[in-house]
Amino acid sequence: MSRSTYEQVHDGEWWLFQEGRSNRRCKIACCDCGLVHVFRIRIRKGRVEMQVNRLPHATGGRRASMAAEKRRDPR
Predict the structure, then answer these.
(1) Which domain of life is it from (predicted)?
(2) Is the residue at 52 inside a domain?
(3) What is the pLDDT of residues 18-63, one digit of tens each?
């Protein structure tokens, strides 16, 4: 099984969505709670449209990973 990686973006930081990456799709995981969503962006009639869907299985994996990291480094 392959492990997903997520680009780290900090709270309040601007992030550039790069056209052409995975057919205008990207997965984003919340750094606080671990929720994972797939964002899809398209341009239609000169307007930018965005669709967001939650990924329950990826969220479970991310939260398990966060819990394991917390057990290794309890601050």
Answers:
(1) Bacteria
(2) yes
(3) 655 545 677 777 777 888 888 888 888 988 888 888 888 888 888 8
